[in-house]
């Protein structure tokens, strides 16, 4: 007895592009931020601020970079006002670097709340607008959101590497 199985595929003839709403994009970003926050929490405090490999920065420095870039990025994403290159931590961020895990997590949470606040007023078409971002390049705003999220993931991967080297992850 021979049995044949047929493969069924569905095709749509829609000419409508797939669109990601600002709410979906924010949920994706905040999910990535939650994963990074959980990684910060998993670090022993002494290793968070002082451990590194091969001359790389400690994970607390990487987390601070993410925090320092998040508000300028969120302002640019939501309003179109992009600060000049290199101004992330010098111009708007007058808050001192945290010196312990509790303060780092507090700054992380405050930044998350500010991103959410800024995002609330973003027009739905904003993500598709073309802009020059931080004087570095032009393209649709959504592409820069994705690049920014990729940067955070890269920083988090370095933190995971640190924990694995310590046999902690």
Automatic annotation (TrEMBL):
InterPro entries: DinB (IPR007837), DinB/YfiT-like (IPR034660). Keywords: Metal-binding. Pfam families: DinB (PF05163). It comes from the Bacteria. Belongs to the DinB family. This is Damage-inducible protein DinB. The lineage of its organism: Bacteria, Pseudomonadati, Bacteroidota, Chitinophagia, Chitinophagales.
